[in-house]
Design goal:
This protein is of the alpha+beta class. It has a domain of 136 residues: Beta Barrel (Elongation Factor Tu (Ef-tu), domain 3). It is 19% helix and 25% strand. The strands form two sheets. It has a six-stranded antiparallel beta barrel. Strands 1-2 form a two-stranded antiparallel ribbon. A hairpin with a 5-residue loop joins strand 5 and strand 6. The longest helix is centred in the C-terminal third of the chain and has 18 residues. The protein starts with 33 loop residues before the first strand and ends with a strand. The N terminus is likely disordered.
Amino acid sequence: MSRLFRAGSSLLQPCVEVGARTRGGWGASRQPSFSSRGPGDQGLNSSRRLLLRVPSRGCLRSVAMKNLPYFCRGEVVRGFGRGSKELGIRTANFSEEVVDSFPSDISTGIYYGWGCVGTGDVHKVVLSIGWNPYYKNVKKSVETHVIHPFKEDFYGEVLSIIIVGYIRPEQNFDSLDALIAAIQHDIDEAKNLLDLPEHQKFKDDNFFHRANVNSMTNGH
């Protein structure tokens, strides 16, 4: 079992913006913004004060992309059973061991990339890394939707993925319909982005054709 890691940026590094709006994205709850006044700004009104806000989508994307591409391989295990039953969208879950092997500086959120089951064909994928606030998960999960119609489940098979891009942060939703609509939008966006030449090249990466497909690998 091999694990490969590379140090990267963290969301703990501040993103300071003035008057910026944040956008949520499969879950994080809203967080308050804070105003900061230095000793020389006593006469400034609130519209000119420096605001420290939750990082914008652009800032989050920039941080997340620094850790990509990211290579991951592991066994598909049974998850919560919500993907096909409640959402109508099948997802493949990695084991806790694989999830715990992800470096802590990989931001939670929605990503896209390429994946294959066993030694099969390589397909587009979209995946969620995080706690899925709508379902109030207590354990972090990595759930991958392979954009391909499979006739049967593939529990126990080895799923290999290359994460190449970031779509948005996690977001809580007011209803199941809103969650489903967001996931469908994520899928459509992933399909389009993966057609770009800089992402297409990873479809033929040697990672998908290595002999040791039964070993777990996390790394860059």
